[in-house]
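Why this split exists: single-chain examples teach little about how molecules sit against one another. For that reason, every record in the complexes split bundles all components of an assembly together and asks for one structure covering all of them. Below is a record exactly as it appears in the raw files.
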Amino acid sequence: MLEGAELYFNVDHGYLEGLVRGCKAGLLTERDYVNLVQCETLEDLKIHLQTTDYGNFLANQTNPLTVSKIDTEMRKKLCSEFEYFRNHSLEPLSTFFTYMTCSYMIDNVILLMNGALQKKSVKEILVKCHPLGRFTEMEAVNIAETPSDLFNAVLIETPLAPFFQDCMSENILDELNIELLRNKLYKSYLEAFYKFCKNHGDVTAEIMCPILEFEADRRAFIITLNSFGTELSKEERETLFPTCGKLHPEGLRLLAQAEDFEQMKRVAEHYGVYKPLFEAVGDGSGGKTLEDVFYEHEVQMNVLAFNRQFHYGVFYAYTKLKEQEMRNIVWIAECISQRHRTKINNYIPIL
Amino acid sequence: MGSMFRSEEVALVQLFLPTAAAYTCVSQLGELGLVEFRDLNASVSAFQRRFVMDVRRCEELEKTFTFLQEEVWRAGLALSPPEGALPAPPPRDLLRIQEETDRLAQELRDVRGNQQTLRAQLHQLQLHEAVLGQGHCPPLVATDTDRSSERTPLLQDPRGPHQDLRVNFVAGAVEPHKAAALERLLWRACRGFLIASFRETEQPLQDPVTGEPATWMTFLISYWGEQIGQKILKITNCFHCHVFPFEEQEEARHAALQQLQQQSHELLEVLGETERFLSQVLGRVQRLLPPWQVQIHKMKAVYLALNQCSVSATHKCLIAEAWCAARDLPTLQQALQDSSSEAGVSAVVHRIPCRDMPPTLVRTNRFTASFQGIVDAYGVGRYQEVNPAPYTIVTFPFLFAVMFGDVGHGLLMFLFALAMVLAENRPAVKTAQNEIWRTFFGGRYLLLLMGLFSVYTGFIYNECFSRATVIFRSGWNVSAMVDQSGWSDEFLAQHPLLTLDPNVSGVFRGPYPFGIDPVWSLAVNHLSFLNSFKMKMSVILGVTHMAFGVVLGVFNHLHFRQPYRLLLETLPELVFLLGLFGYLVFLVFYKWLCYTSASAASAPSILIHFINMFLFSRSPTNRPLFTGQEMVQSALVVLALAMVPVLLLGTPLFLFRQHRRRSRKRPTGRQLDEDQTGLLDASNPSEAAWGSDEEKAGCPGPEEEAEFVPSEVVMHQAIHTIEFCLGCISNTASYLRLWALSLAHAQLSEVLWAMVMRTGLRMGNKIGVMAVVLVPIFAAFAVLTVAILLVMEGLSAFLHALRLHWVEFQNKFYSGTGYKLSPFSFAVEE
């Protein structure tokens, strides 16, 4: 890609960029959250959401209103927006969008396989699948018994196919293997996405690479955290880390050796970006969880992405911000519906 | 018309509505559309207000209405708008409507559900029929005969004896867009241990949900082995295929087919019965729904308005604040009394003082509306500011016509507008939905005047479709010229161009009575003559228009009681404008009046004089127009430049002095204020109850007036001064667009005539040829005239006239920073 996206970016993507910026302006503000938190019932929440950009999205829901209905409708709304962007996009933005959906597709595939393992019906699980990651062959996932089966029969035609190269094995799919599969898939996905953005160059690379680097490192941390006390060996653990982050290669090697949270924290202290994050994590009783801290940092990066123009990062950032907003609303709605108001303020504000 | 001059007086009124009658009062106000409610509960969020429950119930109802409406639309029926006046229903009716709606919706849902299930069954049956009747020939035979030579041995060898091999079938139907993916997935997942044949159904089947016809793919899969069968079933499930039992024997299949056909026949009859019932229910919905929709909509609006009221301390009445035109106050009083008489306690209105800027209300009729629209598009006027609309009624069409001047084109436009005006009461014209048409229709009176004025300027330019008309005798006499100059035949033959000299007696008999002499259309210097005329005319019109704008400012200053601005702003502005450009206009007139054709050769150039005026110099070749010209010019320039500092510093210094004087007096003044407010509070106990909210609503009590910030005033005035002084020059130049566009219009129509009509007229001399040729030629001429000269040129002239009004005229006096009074009204916006 040539330098100087400013000159011709708008020819192909100007409309969509304008649109996404407009959508971003419709995100809930601090004031909206303050109002939402005050709501007594879900009906109140609905009335308040009606005054925002969500509009009448719950108008056709029959009573009683539940959190999951709100969640589904919000997802539908995001999905329709995303579909609109995607249908109006040109190359290479459409590839970018495909990459964005891949992560949801991976989640869905894994969800379905787990469901098949627990002998749940496909319909039941389909409801839980993220609408952004839907694809036709998705439901056939449960016919596969080994990863290579899965690849050869089901996923070969989907955009996920290239990520499968590293995870071909003849192992029977049990719970652990599925989890490994997910992480391996995610690793190759992130690396491929990173490569795509890097090759694209320009502002897109400048914005997207840090975001993806952070995403990769976050996964590494989370994998490490989750693998404490499991039968996962350290060598295996290391193979799961995405290698496109800032931690690569030294940090990842150290992380692979870490045995508890303190050691992990010590690894993070070598990195200026992650040191303050780990320091912000509260201990056990109060304070924030590591996950929340990561979310906050992600939100911050995504908001900053809007400060630059002429790049694809805004689409990614918008989707992520919207997802965060949805998580916030769901959190608030859960707190309201369960009458558990003490923690209602633990949402992550979008600045 | 008097109300057009400035916006009407609008008062802030307080309405005390007894709780029992509040609903009827507000609904009556909605019918009348007199007042604009102010939100007294701005600090209370939407779901904590008083009538939230009622609003919510209305919304529930509206949701059901939407459902009913969609059902009606889906059945391909239309809802007619309700007729007659439908007042907001009394609150107790809500329950009745709600019950009836719910019953209707439930009924509809039931019937619709029945219909859906029946249709789904029918669909299933039909698919099954299609699968069976498609005549997928038993594939085993086909494969055996076709492929035995190559494939069979390979398949058979590892599986041992041939007899064990049992072929099973799965038959079903799938949506066509999934067929290819299904086939590929089957192949990959089962490694080819199957043979699948796909075929499209012969006739499209009705989709059970949407009712639209769609073709399906039927398939027949034959496979070997149990495990493969399991897999195939899973895959077909995940593709949402319909799988049907498939008999292997031909006869059994036939029997099944016949049974299916019989079943579907029966089902069709039941379905027909259901659909008849459905249409009955829909008919009822069609009849009842529209009035309900209007009524509930009104009811919701009333509750939303009531939500903006605050409650009095005793809970006996609601207090509303509203803007209302002072002229409508008696009507308002009467309406409130009438509608609250039932409740025993009457509603009360009283005016309260307010320091907020009231909204702007200019009443228009269908004639003035479009002109007011032009002004409002720039900015709604400040409260009681001079409204430029009444002047726009004349100046806008006139400036347009100056650019568009042509009798023929003007007449066409006038007739078009006239047709619209005459047909304006026809319902078909009124309700037309075409956006372009509505734009034209909305501006029909504007178009009418524009056409009329264009006819007038067309006569002045003496152009009708670019041809000159000879109404009076021309002022020039060619024969006199020929007689006096003694042109020989030889001379005439050699010179195609001859000069008419007005100085020769008898040649120029005097000016043409009205407009341009038609003889000019024959002259080669036609254009330079017209250019000089039009350019001067543009400057004269421009300076007059701008000076008029400055003078209108006087009415603003007088009305807002700022007499100092007369002296410190209007006067310097007028002197500056008239001293420089008014003088230019004077020069033009002077030269027109004082120089005859005899002295034309030695006439001085105004342009050079004007340039020299600013340079304080003189050019020897350019004679002065009158004695003492240089003195006058120098004096004017000095005077005009002297006005700049006055304009720049006058107002800020005056305000500063005023501020100083006032701040010295302040201590006593404040005490007095406090006394007064104390008294007010005591006399009005209810005020305390809503006082806090009222302040939030944006009406600060008697507070100090806006802080005086010298730097801001100076900055503002500096910007205004620079804008005005530079604007005078650039705006005057801007009026030259009148000349440019009228020139362009004239030339374009001239070209059109010369290139199309004249060529056409020259083509044949015989009557027959002429008649045949002229039909398409005239058609082309007519189409091009309308498309280019009327529509395109008309739009461009309109645009420029708009600009001249918005920028050049209105910035001299019009601030346009107000907001419109938008009364609470049930009336539908036209």
